[in-house]
What we know:
449 residues; antiporter activity; mainly alpha; membrane; 18 helices
Amino acid sequence: MEAAQKKSNLMTEGSIGKQIFFFSVPLILGNLLQQLYNTADSIIVGNFVGSNALAAVGSSTALINLLIAFSQGASVGAGVVASQYLGAKKRKRVQDTVHTALAIAAVLGIILTVGGIFFSRFLLIWMNTPEDVLKDSVTYLQIYFGGVFFNVVYNMAAGILNAAGNSRRSLLYLAYASVTNIVLDLILIGIFHMGVAGAAIATDISQMVSCVLALIFLARVNADYQVDLRRIRIHRGAALRIIRIGLPTGIQNMVISFSNVLVQSSVNGFGSAAMAGFGAYMKIDGFNILPVTSFSMAVTTFTGQNFGAGKIDRVKKGMWVTLAMGLVYTILTGILLLTFSDPIMRLFTDDQTVISYGELAMKYFCPFYFMLSIMHGLAGSIRGTGKSVPPMIVMLTSLCVFRIFWLQFILPLFDAIDGVFVVYPVSWLLGMTLMVLYAWKGKWLKVRA
């Protein structure tokens, strides 16, 4: 049992800043590696195939996020439940949670595979995808969703590892996946000239690699969260608690992703060059957004463990440490991206029109990422206490309802794509303000008897 607890890396004792930082680093590096191989798809496709193929791959991101958003919410719910039980040292509850979580992931993975393959064309047409990009977009999406099962199961496995404080494992497996993806991209696209199909196949195989490695580790680790593949099934009590916490996050992710699909549809209306430029920059955007969400995930785990152990003072201090780290990161990276915007965009293409769209997006996004870091940092702290509904309401109000209102009523007042880009910082400001108000006035730190 002593070895098991050591491997669980509980964060209920010791330096708060050091624990959150060193727990965040593997999450950040892992997410950046995942973004790296997604970006590699776009860079290699843009340079070897052309701007239309770049548009096809880049514009698919919003739709992919929409379709897998609910499963990501489920992994958050499972992580919160597992971290609280680990903090409370309830081994049986931990076991029920991890086996139920993987069973839920398997079911969702199968549903998404079938749905993604059959509905890709319909959804892309609904998004106003231009005819000169549609064929490649459909090809990329259908092949991508052929392997999405591995993505869903890996995310759930990573959620279990992160809940136990073992985020270094997630980083290691994503490193293997990143190398696999980039090598296969170069082979399938650069040598065999398979275009967007090669990019999708490379992504599928790399996701399978990370999924299999994570499951092997979970099956072998000597810890409370060890998985017996033969025992994977849905335990009613664990499933209900995962759903209670994960459902609001899943709905939040889906609805926000839906608003991003609407934004992408508005961008599509400006033509394939706008699609390519915006899609390319959104790959770079991930290098800023994903560390912010990594800090949020870290503080969710930290809060879950300490809240489960009844250590409210550590929860409060962890929140402030997370906010400080997010602010420093987003301000520095925002400055760097703006300074080197032109060479960054030229990694994807030499088409000056495409580059200009990407640089314009940078000017609207980069100075304001700090607001997003505050919103996500507070949301992660609140969510770790098991109160996932208030962050959901704030996120839906600011990142979905407001954006839909903007696109419907404010965007027609603009005669350029600037009207699409400016909705991002304005919605971040609204979300940050609402989240600060709830964190200040809400009763999210109250421990239930």
